[in-house]
Amino acid sequence: MIVGFANPFSGIAHMLGHPFLRYAFLAGTGIALASGLVGYFVVLRGQVFTGDALSHVAFTGALAALAFGIDVRAGLYGACVVFAVLMAALGARARADDTVVGSVFAWVLGLGALFLTVYTTSSSGVNATTGVNVLFGSIFGLSFAGALTDALLALAVAVAVVVVARPLLFASVDEAVASARGVPTRTLGFGFLILVGVTAGEASQAVGALLLLGLLAAPAGAAQQLTARPFRALWLSAGIAVLSVWIGLSIAYAAPQVPPSFGILAVATACYVLAAATATGRRLVTSPGRART
Predict the structure, then answer these.
(1) Which of 176, 248, 170 is nearest to 214 (CA)?
(2) 99 Cβ contact partners less than 8 Å away, ≥ 6 residues apart
(3) Under a CB-based contact definition with an 8 Å cutoff, are residues 172 and 124 in contact?
(4) Helix ranges, the chain (H)
(5) Are 213 and 52 in contact (CB under 8 A)?
(6) Which positions of the chain have pLDDT values less than 50?
(7) Domains in the chain, ordered, with CATH?
(8) Among 42, 43, 100, 215, which is 20 to 30 Å from 127 by CA?
(9) Using one digit for the tens of pLDDT, what is the confidence trace for 145-186?
């Protein structure tokens, strides 16, 4: 019996004996925490399309960095933050609408095509692996320094979200009343989109630019299905995101043919489906028609 109970722990210890997995869990936990907290407000404020646009911005920024021979991470973070500020500036009350996001989206894709051409025709040669890693994530390729930087930056984002959570919630639910009560809604809008930009740059390293929207939206959507209490949903979103990363990385370790990005988003999506089914079942049980029967 003791051996039976010890086996799971020995398996975890063996898994964490690999440095690349320790670094992945370190960075992934921080990225998931930031994504879950930021993602809750992304969904609440109806800015999911903005997150989708930033996923393409992340790839374009990485291509720009490759084309000009600078660090890819600088391109990821720099482009996401710059375009987040741009969308906030162009949108009403620092909240980008679909027209603004769509216009930026198209421009970013054009820039991406330009930087891809510059990169592939440069004399320095082409490293196709780097581009693929940006698209689909490279969390198993992080060094300790890179993982620690990502974790600390994600922690800073999480702390910032917690600090502004109450006024940001007020501004998200009823912006006009919040503004009348003295809440700096425009400043909050700018600050929030900057946090989204930083989180998008980080999440690109965990699940890739093409898939980062799932890590922002799925845990938050699941949390909102499970509870109507905003702060409980906020932390539940963070918990689901962290759990998705932990289980996804474990799946990728146990089955090496499964990419970590797929494992992470498969768990996050499953959590959303289960939460939606639970919420639907609860509504059916408590509906007036059901109560009369």
Answers:
(1) 248
(2) none
(3) no
(4) 2-15, 19-44, 48-68, 72-90, 98-120, 128-136, 144-173, 175-180, 185-207, 212-226, 230-254, 260-286, 288-292
(5) yes
(6) 1-6, 291-293
(7) 21-210 (1.10.3470.10)
(8) 215
(9) 888 988 999 999 999 999 999 999 999 888 889 888 888 888
3-state secondary structure of 137: coil
| Sequence-ordered list of residues with C-beta below 8 angstroms from that of 57, at least 6 positions apart, any chain | 79, 80, 83, 104, 108, 197, 200
Single out the residue of 99, 97, 53, 41 nearest to residue 79, CA to CA: 53
Q: Is 82 exposed, middle or buried (0-12, 13-18, 19+ CB in 10 A)?
A: middle
- For the record, the structure tokens of 144 come out as 């300790």
Both structure tokens of 270? 């499953």
Question: Radius of gyration over alpha carbons of the chain, in Å?
Answer: 20
What is the DSSP-derived secondary structure letter of residue 92?
A: B
pLDDT at 233: 95
pTM: 0.83
Please count the residues of the chain: 293
Check: CB of residue 79 under 8 Å from CB of residue 57.
yes
Q: What is the pLDDT of residue 36?
A: 94
Residue written as tokens 């609860």? 282
